[in-house]
Design a protein that fits this description.
390 residues; 4-stranded antiparallel sheet; elongated
């Protein structure tokens, strides 16, 4: 009998890579009938397998002598899941091998059972050592080359490795709360907890919270939140808030979770027919290179979006009063989406280093840059800007 957690993890891996499903959504449906213990194990196995796929594929091809892309999807998913457990967990070797074979059999790929059994036994004998012998870099840490190259370009080779390692580890569980609920951080209202109590707190990294705090919104002001969903930052804003969200479903969900000071508008922020805002926040869509630990499949989907980011920032500036404040934030670590966007915007920079020196950008200290490896939070770039006074 296949362990329930392994079966659920197998389903997630199969759906992520063969049906382009999002890992968190695939997991939610796969573990619906499991108890808490099996849910936690299924998540660990599924997310770890998705995250470490480049390393796993290298081992499967090296020891299995067959290109991974040519394998049947259920065989590919089973071998990936099995390889992950053998190299990165303390799961019993015989149980891992047996369940990998049975998953292929259950998928009605009987002809592939002997191959799966043979490759799993080779992996059991040699994969952990093979991983240990790999040179430090994107194959060993399981990242696309372009991400490793971007970080090496922006921060140097050692920092690139440090970021890769850090975002392969489970992130700290950070929340926003109105009262002390765990370990306090240097961001007011941000805490690190062991588990989330939805009645008392909201999951949200302190880097994300910092971006909202830096807007400096006040009662009586008109505030524009250009890319509002899922709404964590929106709920932190004071004043009369116009929360813009382009996706209808996300806009509807957002409207159910905000206070009476927030009006949700389902429109592209570049087409909003309103202006005269005192302040704005542009938490723009991005490649997400600062939140890869939280979203295991993102490293395989991520794409920089500099053109869109610049358009959104300029759109917010056009709708903000002369001399008004705009916070530009993105949860990515990529100069092309960070300082390059601000430089191209033509807006006046309001320096932040004196207020938050611990997060000052290493080469552009007028901006803030949080790093998962150094700060134990999401990687965020934050700039506070002002429109040109009339």
């Amino acid at each position: 009998m296949i362990a329930p957690a392994r079966r659920a993890a197998f389903d997630v891996v199969l759906r992520v890579f063969e049906q382009d499903a999002y890992a968190d959504r695939a997991l939610a449906s796969a573990v619906e009938s499991l108890d808490d213990r099996d849910r936690a194990l299924a998540q660990r196995l599924a997310y770890g397998t998705v995250q470490r796929t480049r390393t796993l594929d290298f081992g499967i091809e090296h020891l299995g002598k067959r290109p991974v892309r040519k394998l049947d999807p259920p065989v590919r998913a089973s071998l990936r899941l099995g390889a992950y457990q053998l190299a990165f967990t303390d799961q019993a070797e015989h149980a891992v091998v047996d369940d990998a074979v049975e998953l292929v059999r259950a998928a009605r790929r009987e002809r592939a059972v002997p191959f799966t059994n043979a490759v799993m036994r080779r992996l059991a004998q040699g994969f952990r050592g093979l991983v240990a012998s790999l040179p430090e870099g994107p194959v060993k840490e399981s990242y696309p080359d372009w991400i490793a190259e971007t970080w090496a370009r922006d921060f140097g080779g050692e920092a690139s490795l440090s970021l890769m390692r850090a975002q392969n580890e489970p992130p700290a569980l950070e929340v926003r709360a109105d009262e002390p609920v765990g370990e306090a951080t240097d961001v007011p209202g941000a805490y690190i907890v062991e588990r989330v109590d939805p009645a008392r707190m909201r999951p949200m990294s302190r880097a994300s919270q910092l971006a909202a705090l830096l807007v400096g919104s006040r009662d009586g002001e008109r505030i524009l939140d250009s890319c509002a969903a899922p709404g964590g930052k929106t709920t932190m804003l004071r004043g009369e808030v116009t929360a813009v969200e382009i996706h209808p479903g996300r806009a509807a969900a957002l409207a159910k979770n905000v206070g009476p000071n927030v009006r949700v508008v389902n429109v592209d922020a570049r087409e909003l027919e309103e202006s005269g805002f005192d302040r704005a926040i542009v938490d723009a869509p991005c490649s997400g290179l600062g939140v890869l630990a939280r979203r295991p499949d993102l490293r395989w989907r991520a794409r920089p979006l500099p053109e869109l980011q610049l358009e959104l920032l300029r759109a917010a500036a056009e709708r903000t009063k002369p001399g008004g404040t705009i916070v530009y934030s993105v949860c990515t670590l990529n100069a092309d989406e960070n300082e390059a966007i601000v430089d191209a915007s033509g807006l006046v920079v309001d320096p932040l280093a004196e207020e938050w020196p611990q997060y000052a950008h290493p080469t552009r200290p007028e901006f803030l840059l949080t790093r998962p490896d150094r700060d134990r939070t999401s990687g965020f770039f934050i700039a506070r800007l002002r429109t040109i006074p009339s």
